[in-house]
């Protein structure tokens, strides 16, 4: 006969924090949000500490290099998604590692024969008003010119006119070579009254653009998450199918941490993959998941996981609970796993951080997750709303939205995450939809961080660790809230209604 677990499966919506005494020295300016990312001896420090407790979901609609850069600059970490050829994922990791503050990779690029109509469309899509004209229409092709929104107007110029007729050709542009420093580039921008300075290599191929508007950018990010060489940190998702080939290339590309990405991490496949990874790359941190209980945590921690992700069925785009009847309220899952992490640390002296993944709808849910014992959180929907996320920004009657789709949707077809037997998806476990557009990541995250710090101050906690050990929570009602489908308008596609 099946075993019934004691206790109700509870969600974050059912809890509130009680204020604790706030000491005079406890203020939002003094609250420290740093938190361990990877396994370490109890009482010592983790080899990687996040400066803010946020990671972005291993999803096509979320963790692009642009988002990874923005998040690392704000102290968190992205895990670049893996449902594609290894070279493409490794290239994204390299993009983040090669990022130089102030030097941006051009994302709005055209060929000289492209039309002004196509250029206009591209500018709307990327939201940028400066485009590089290159021989192959990529951001690393040979630079032929620049064209900005000041060089043409849809009402004055024919949409069929080629870009070449309106661009400023490369001979008439001020350009710098690759060895230029940010302060030299900035000096040229001001001395020569330029808005944009292209940086090219010895063969005239475009490497970066430096914009006057980014001038004081670096000072805005005191909490950047960087490695010993001051390069931004980035993680990468891996799967239990091609890890023997994928992991070496990601490590070579400079990934700071890896994470096995599975909707159900309590499996022999994942344990074997973790053991392999730790044997061949002992110095590269690798996380595992997802699990929802003490047994699952212990299984992965014993297999060598450097952190464990918690959460099944709670994601906003997730329909696993409806499709397979599997999952657990995220609050119950985090509380159970956090207790297991403490017991494991007591027994082995090893602290294995845990991550609450999915189903965080309100900013205060993130604080609740930490209070309940999570060391950091992972979010998809939250980050998909920002400019830096890869989904298209689209106008609707009610304002702008961004596309957001689950890894188990027909659009993503991430069969490596959703083992349903064989290659390919037999049924969907995620939806394809939209989320409300939320602007720039740094601005949005600043508000979330302010709320989190304010919550911690009310609870009298100056660090995440203190918050975890002193928080008092109360259950607010018996009513169970549905965690999934938060503010995602489901797009009815022929596939999803079939
Ligand atoms: P969110 O922050 O609530 O949007 O949840 C994001 C999390 O949902 C991810 O980190 C994954 O763990 C999980 N996830 C991603 N895609 C799917 C899907 O298609 N079905 C179920 N869960 C998913």
TrEMBL record:
<dbReference type="InterPro" id="IPR000644">
    <property type="entry name" value="CBS_dom"/>
</dbReference>
<dbReference type="GO" id="GO:0003938">
    <property type="term" value="F:IMP dehydrogenase activity"/>
</dbReference>
<keyword id="KW-0479">Metal-binding</keyword>
<keyword id="KW-0332">GMP biosynthesis</keyword>
<keyword id="KW-0658">Purine biosynthesis</keyword>
<feature type="domain" description="CBS">
    <location>
        <begin position="103"/>
        <end position="163"/>
    </location>
</feature>
<dbReference type="InterPro" id="IPR001093">
    <property type="entry name" value="IMP_DH_GMPRt"/>
</dbReference>
<keyword id="KW-0630">Potassium</keyword>
<keyword id="KW-0129">CBS domain</keyword>
<dbReference type="Pfam" id="PF00478">
    <property type="entry name" value="IMPDH"/>
</dbReference>
<dbReference type="InterPro" id="IPR013785">
    <property type="entry name" value="Aldolase_TIM"/>
</dbReference>
<comment type="similarity">
    <text>Belongs to the IMPDH/GMPR family.</text>
</comment>
<protein>
    <submittedName>
        <fullName>IMP dehydrogenase</fullName>
        <ecNumber>1.1.1.205</ecNumber>
    </submittedName>
</protein>
<dbReference type="InterPro" id="IPR046342">
    <property type="entry name" value="CBS_dom_sf"/>
</dbReference>
<dbReference type="InterPro" id="IPR005990">
    <property type="entry name" value="IMP_DH"/>
</dbReference>
<dbReference type="InterPro" id="IPR015875">
    <property type="entry name" value="IMP_DH/GMP_Rdtase_CS"/>
</dbReference>
<keyword id="KW-0560">Oxidoreductase</keyword>
<feature type="domain" description="CBS">
    <location>
        <begin position="167"/>
        <end position="225"/>
    </location>
</feature>
<dbReference type="Pfam" id="PF00571">
    <property type="entry name" value="CBS"/>
</dbReference>
<keyword id="KW-0520">NAD</keyword>
